[in-house]
Amino acid sequence: MKLRKLAVAMTAVMAFGAISVPAAAEETQVIGISMPTQSLERWNRDGEYLKEQFENAGYTVELKYSDNDSSQQVSDIQNLLADNVDILIIAAVDGEALNTVMDEAAESEIPVIAYDRLIMNDATSYYVSFDNYTVGQLQGEFIVETLDLENAGDATYNMEITAGDPADNNAGYFYNGAMDVLNPYIEAGTLVVVSGQTDFDSVATDQWDTQTALERAQNILSSYYADGTQLDVWLCSNDSTALGVAQGITSDYAGDNTVIITGQDGDVANLANIVDGIQTMTVYKNVSNESIVTLALAEAMLNGETIDEAFTESLSVEAAFDTESYETSDGVKCPSILLVPSVITADNIEELVDTGLYEMGEDGYLTAVE
Ligand code: GAL
Predict the structure, then answer these.
(1) The ligand 1 atom nearest the CA atom of 132
(2) CA pair distance 356, 242, nearest whole angstrom
(3) Within 13 A of 59's CA, how many CA atoms are on the CB side?
(4) Are 123 and 92 in contact (CB under 8 A)?
(5) Predicted pLDDT at 90
(6) Do residues 220 and 160 make contact, with C-beta atoms less than 8 angstroms apart?
(7) What 3-state class would DSSP assign to 370?
(8) For the chain, where are the alpha helices, taking DSSP H only?
(9) How far apart are the CA of 164 and the centre of ligand 1, in A?
(10) Most buried in the list 35, 86, 153, 354, measured by CB within 10 Å?
(11) Which atom of ligand 1 is found nearest the CA of 116?
(12) Is the pLDDT of residue 6 over 50?
């Protein structure tokens, strides 16, 4: 493991015993952080929290954002490697597109933490994320419970689906988690996907882009719902896509405004939509906790400590140590620390204020605490 060294001249002086240098000045470990984009709210929060956590613990932080461009991310990471970082923390734009630079990290013996999104390369040392499959399950179960599908009898409900970015390894987990819950009701005819667009490739949204989700929603609404067909549910994998879908429903759907819309992240615009009854739920991920876990893991790695279930249980944040669920290549399991997501609706939105990360204005809307 590399440590940033004092100037060679200083070392030479020390070698002759001429002066002594205080230990703290000898080495500052450097943490290289590569985040995917600032265009989605959560990654701004992740970057800020990570930077703050590591700096407060005495590390130097280099933080880069790649504008959702994987070649930009490759060069960002190359620059971090050139700067001799001691550890890399990467939330990949495209989990399949980092092989060259991951090999370079391995050659330089720089350990890599895949942050939130898995990197499909065996040089990934550990994965820190939320339980991605559970995120989808929570969305699916919310729909089942809200519509009371178990007791639906002959009633049918119309649904559409918007999933995430195919380049993001998480997107499939969210989709599968939700669809595994909902498929039995689709097969039974209780849930009807009127557009017929159900497979992942048809419902995916490049880069989780709001505008892309909006345009697809408008197309579906004008093609399948303009005749007055009732829309009951729109399963959205996250908040940026839910924002687009909600806009599409406002602009292009003439029916009553009771469509159930799911989401994920707790972005401020979506929390406002939840307060206003436009979005129904979001799966909240406390990314401040994700940064706390990442700091603890990075410190343990840098100190050569054992990282296992006992380590995970010792964390101040609830998380599971999972050595089975995630593979960086066929058969190569990636040890993972998975945090627990939760459901936020209009009824429990104040729980977010209790985290200390949000405050509620007199107007009832939440803003992030600076
Ligand atoms: C996922 C992440 C989600 C969401 C999405 C859009 O990888 O787990 O929380 O933010 O990306 O950026």
Answers:
(1) 8
(2) 25
(3) 24
(4) no
(5) 98
(6) yes
(7) coil
(8) 8-15, 23-26, 41-56, 70-82, 99-107, 132-146, 169-187, 200-203, 210-220, 239-252, 268-275, 287-302, 309-313, 350-354
(9) 8
(10) 35
(11) 8
(12) no
Q: What is the pLDDT of residues 64-115, one digit of tens each?
A: 999 999 999 999 999 999 999 999 999 999 999 999 999 999 999 999 999 9
Tokens 């017929």 identify what position?
196
For residue 28, give the nearest of 47, 1, 12, 6 by alpha carbon.
6
Ligand 1 pocket, 170 CB below 6 A?
A: yes
Query: How confident is the model over 39-71, as pLDDT tens digits?
Result: 999 999 999 999 999 999 999 999 999 999 999
Work out whether the CA dihedral 342, 343, 345, 347 comes out positive or negative. negative
pLDDT at 8 over 50: no
Which residue has tokens 């729909």?
143
Other residues' Cβ atoms within 10 Å of the Cβ of residue 188 = 11
76 lines ligand 1 (CB under 6 A): no
From 170, 175, 339, mutation site for ligand 1 pocket: most ligand atoms within 8 A of C-beta: 170
Answering whether pTM is above 0.70, one says yes
Radius of gyration of the chain (CA): 23
**41 residue type, one letter:** E
Mutation pick for ligand 1 pocket among 67, 133, 240, 264 (CB with most ligand atoms within 8 Å):
264
Whole-number Å distance, alpha carbon 37 to ligand 1 midpoint, is: 11
